[in-house]
Specification:
alpha+beta, Pdz3 Domain, five-stranded mixed β-sheet, 15 helices
Length: 442
């Protein structure tokens, strides 16, 4: 299928050049369209065309999702988009689709961690999912989570599943979640009427774009608007195996790099070098695949992992202790920006240092969170207006003094408070304790 830039597209880009010249983000999006379509390799923003070609050719489909203005995972995206020699031959064995927007996204099929700035799906032409790729645990750095080598290992594993599709299809069924009640992002209540199903390259293309993180934010807002409890899987989505003490090698598909001492995974018997080949019966070809299983797991229980160790296959339990999901760090997530407005009036918090704990007379089991930054504009300035300052140490929040993370404070407010509530907060400022009031916002 030809993918060359058409005359109409060249004219369109030329007409819109003056818009992009005034906005660097606009220019990035437009440059990406011109650069990638000129390769005559990628199908651009058209998943259905990818599935149609896959049916004709018998190839599997690779769909990558990229938030272009975001800096995280930029190098991985560049390596894949430009067909780095380490993956070029592998990419030739797929029908490759590049998507740079969540507009029109099939929310029943493409369920993944929407806070990713780069993610990938590998699928059969019948839309069976072979696996996901894309993991993130830091706001900017990604080297500990993903790599072009690890992506290559995932593509290789997907091709093996594809080669024996008939035998693998039943086990792959659980890689697709339940159908979404709202089929596409532009129909979500907070986005409806503001966005269309496609990007508007004729005008302000960035303003017409639904960013992936907006999908997750909109899904959470649906619960809040109904005054329904927010499920943990929306508050702490796609838990990283690190929470259980499993650190995966970013240069492999799903191989244990190390096991943290005293962690759940260590007690369960995982070892460095273990290659996780399945979890709860699902074939595993990436860390993101493990996160998919964890995302849909219960609040506690025991999962079964099949690992390859020293040439042998064996089953190893993976224990989920009560409250395991809430131990995850969600501060890196783009969507936490809205949570800071709602729950903390625009504050950004860090764990207190040992010296700050000593001054606050807070032991290791007590609350001590230092104000890293105070928002200065709009609703994100609510805490500033309420008297909070940078370097304040929060030692009591709504009467609670047990140790909590920033994310656990988010959860507490979203579960227990309503818009307009006033939360008493005690902070240590220098050597003085002050009682302030935190407004809960929409």
């Amino acid at each position: 299928m030809p993918r060359m830039i058409s005359l109409a597209l060249i004219v369109l880009l030329s007409l819109a050049a003056n818009v992009g010249a005034q906005n660097p983000r606009e220019q990035k999006v437009r440059d990406d369209l011109a650069r990638i379509t000129a390769q005559d390799f990628w199908i651009y923003n058209d998943v259905e065309a990818g599935f149609a070609e896959a049916k004709q050719t018998g190839k599997p489909v690779l769909v990558t999702f990229r938030c272009i203005p975001c800096e995280a995972c930029a190098q991985l995206d560049e390596d894949v988009a430009e067909r780095d020699p380490r993956v070029r031959d592998l990419l030739d064995r797929f029908v490759c689709v590049r998507v740079v927007t969540a507009n029109g996204l099939d929310l029943s099929l493409f369920q993944y961690d929407y806070d990713q700035s780069w993610a990938a799906f590998v699928l059969n032409a019948d839309r069976t999912i072979y696996g996901r790729y894309g993991t993130r645990s830091h706001q900017r750095e990604s080297d500990d989570d993903v790599s072009i080598e690890g992506f290559a290992r995932t593509l290789e594993a997907a091709l093996r599943l594809h080669a024996d599709f008939a035998a693998n299809k039943a086990a792959l069924a659980a890689k697709r979640g339940p159908d979404a009640e709202i089929p596409v992002p532009e129909e979500l209540p907070t986005l409806k009427g503001k966005y269309g199903p496609r990007l508007n390259y004729e005008s302000n293309v960035v303003q017409s774009c639904i960013h992936c993180h907006m999908v997750g934010e909109a899904q959470r807002t649906v619960y809040r608007q109904k005054n329904e409890p927010l499920p943990d899987k929306f508050m702490f989505p796609y838990p990283n195996p690190k929470q259980l003490g499993l650190v995966l090698d970013p240069k492999e598909a799903a191989t244990v790099l190390r096991v943290e001492p005293e962690a759940t995974a260590a007690r369960d018997g995982f070892r460095p070098g273990d290659e996780i080949t399945s979890l709860e019966g699902q074939p595993i070809i990436s860390t993101a695949d493990i996160q998919w299983v964890l995302h849909n797991a219960g609040d506690s229980g025991r999962l079964t992992a099949r690992v390859r160790r020293d040439g042998r296959e064996l089953d190893v339990p993976l224990t989920l202790e009560p409250g395991w999901r809430r131990q995850g760090d969600i501060s890196w997530r783009v969507s936490s920006w809205s949570l800071r407005r709602i729950a903390l009036g625009g504050l950004s918090l860090d764990p207190a240092t040992p010296e700050e704990r000593r001054r606050a007379k807070a032991n290791e089991s007590q609350l001590a969170l230092r104000v890293k930054a105070v928002g200065q504009y709009g609703p994100h300035a609510a805490a500033r207006d309420a008297g909070f300052q940078k370097d304040d140490v929060i030692v009591s929040f709504d009467g609670r003094t047990e140790r909590m993370t920033e994310g656990q404070l988010f959860e507490y407010v979203l579960r227990n408070k309503r818009t307009g509530d006033q939360v008493p907060v005690i902070v240590l400022r220098g050597s003085e304790r002050k009682t302030l009031t935190m407004p809960v916002q929409e």
